[in-house]
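CORE FACILITY INTAKE
Project code: CF-77B
Contact: R.S. (postdoc)
Sample description: multi-component assembly, three entities in total
Requested service: structural model of the whole complex
Turnaround: standard
Below are the sequence entries exactly as provided by the requester. Do not edit them.
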Amino acid sequence: MNIEIQNITKRFNKVTALENVSTSFSSGQCIALLGPNGCGKTTMIKTILGMVIPSAGVIKVNGKNIHNDYIYRNDIGYMPQIGKYPANMTIKEVVETIRKLRKPEKDIDLELYFSFKLDEIENKKMNTLSGGTIQKVSACVAFMHNPSILILDEPTAGLDMIAMEVLKEKILKEQAKGKLILITSHQLNELEEILTHVCMMDEARILFFRSKEEIKISTQCDKLATAVYSLFKNIKS
Amino acid sequence: MKELLILISKDILKNRTIIAFAILLFCITWSVFILEDSNEKALHTLGNLVLMVVPLISILFSTIYIYNSTEFIELLVSQPLKRKSIWMSLFAGINVSMIFALFVSIFLPILFYSPTYLGFLIMLLAIFLSAVFISLGFLSSILFKDKARGIGFSMILWLFFALIFDGLILFFLFQFSDYPIEKPMTVIAALNPIDVSRILLLTEMDNEALMGYTGALFQKQFGSIYGKMIIVCILVLWVFIPYYFSLIKFSNKDI
Amino acid sequence: MGRAFNDGTMRFEIAFVILILVPFKIWAAKYYTVANSSSSDIINTLKKVKDYDTIYIKKGHYKEGNIKISRPLTIIGLNYPIIDGELKYELISIASNDVIIKGLKLINSGHSALDDPCAIKVYNASNIVIEHNIFENNFFGIYIQEGHNCLIRNNKLNAEGINEHEIGNGIHAWKSTDLKIVANTIKGHRDGIYFEFVTHSVIWRNIAENNIRYGLHFMFSNDDAYFTNTFRANGAGVAVMYSKKVVMINNKFENNWGAAAYGLLLKDITDSTISGNHFLSNTMGILMEGSNRIEIDKNIFNSNGWALRVQASCMENKFYKNDFLNNTFDIGTNGSVVLNNFDHNYWDKYKGYDLNKDNIGDVPYRPLSLYSVIIEKNNAAMLLFRSLFITLLDRSEKIFPTITPENFIDNYPSMKANI
């Protein structure tokens, strides 16, 4: 499993969201995608998902160009920052629907469904749910098809501590299976234990992409958050 | 694709707006049949109603629905689904629900009171007009990112086809009354989906006698099977072209 | 005393003479019965008869060419014997007064536009009765040329005319007086009933339908009346032209629908009355041209394209207490100044109110819609018929009149149907 990004540029009218970005992620990695607001993180995720179409450059997933393709998304589980669902559907219906929409059907992994105790409220309509519960549904949906690539956009926002721990455990479990996991987050502390790599973006470019250990050694910091921060400052100056 | 279509249709049929619309239209249709002294006259009234209300509701509903489904569309796009299938399912889903609403509200009373050729023609035109204006609604919702602007543009489109277009025709008829403008104007009027439906209804309602030379012209141009096929073609094009442009736009849209 | 006696004798004598004479006349009239044996039974019999004889014709199929009646005579068919003109002859020619023709079935007169062959033609005769006959597939049905005091009653006339030039009229009267045309049914002829220079006549309880041109056609015929007739689905309706003092009461004008059709065409008509008629589903209910001093009252105009089209050349006509219901246009006109009077009519399009509850609307009504004015100026605007734009335009014109003529107005619109 790998994602190869080659010379991607994306412009929205006059704003440049990605400027000639090249990198590659491969299986077994759990990458934190970091950067200040508006640095292009979400755009990057969306170009990988095919939601945003790059102005220039090529993205390959498992060696295949994703342009005009959609089947590769069978291998990707995506948890959006703010998941929104048809208001009149119940949790159960949403999960059912997504399951039906994805073909070919793989083994369904409903571990999160039960560990988040969504089964107890499965007949509630989506428009009655709190932001946190919706996040749980999103997470559940992302992991459901046992995809080999997981893209989680701000998974920690809105989740309570217990749910957070459940999710982390799940991520670790999946990572152990050799999956590629891409997470955007601002809360590095919470994720430190599960991360293998950090990818730092700034002003539409990738500032650095290094493994956790490498960062800690080069900055001689024990805490990842501090290490990343000092590295960021070093490179910027 | 099929799953998606069922899903969207179900969602729309649970939509309060469409239920309210169906109930309102149902009451109007039913009372038209009860109040008018003959079924044929009721069909005339109903024809006018269809020409005015169905386009308005269709374009507004489809525009608003697309804007309200932005997040859902986002979710769908991240799934392994073709964008074309998503857009097509949305289009088909709204059409199916609209036809269902029309069926309950207009078709049932027609079938009950007046299952005549004219009645079936009105039903057919209702379906066509709703498809045309759903298609236009798709176009305006994809052209504008801002919801208010998109809905405004839809309103303008409806106003244009329902009202302004005819005003312009009248203006040109008087402006160029010294020239043989009648025939080209008939052709131009036929380019407006509402007008062409109205003209088709007029030729079928035996009104052409009232309309003198213009009526004879209508009858000649659109009264034959050939002419009716042209009208159907025009309507099909009106369904297809705006939808096609919206589809291309959607396929390349950043979501 | 003697004078009184004398008077009594006179009376007695007169009575005696009458008593002698009356049976004498009855005995003089002989009865003949004709059966269908040879090719000219009727014509042979006609050679034998004397004045006022009666001929009974038995059921059969008679092909005798032209039958000419030149003396007073009664001809009665038993069980509708068929008199067949074989599409060559005029069937019966009447050239004598006091002829009665009854109970015949007259078919297949000659078809020629040159000499107008008829089933029955009356040549300059009085006191003719033509009743209870059936006419089928004739060029002209009954043709009365200079007839006087004729009764045409209870006949059924059927033809299958397609082209105006290939068929004659059902009942055609020319230069006649005192005709009574009663309870006939006329279908498929050119004109159902045609009057030219006919005066002091009555047309009553006839039905004329599906005739190619007019159900009833009046030309230069003054002092006539027609009551309680039905004119239905004729090519162009009913035309009353160049006549004076015509009374039209209680007739029905229905389903005269076509590009140039109308219920009733009035062309150069003066001093006439149109009352209590019912105009239903005509392209135009009444079309008036050059007609003056006509009283049009208590008529119902229902579901017509135009209830009335009053051309600019019409003056001093009075329209009152009529009901206008479900017409596309109540009035059309090609003029702007109309010197006619419209009061106390019921207009179903009237949206006014009646605060003092006297059944007269408090706001005057303008029956002429803006759209009908527009169409008059530019017929192509029919393109926009029943469009939303036109509906709104008409509504706004009703509220703020700008184009429609100021004096085209009903000052006392009725709140309820008058009839």
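Facility notes:
- Chain A has one domain: 2-236.
- The longest helix of chain A spans residues 161-176.
Invoice: internal transfer
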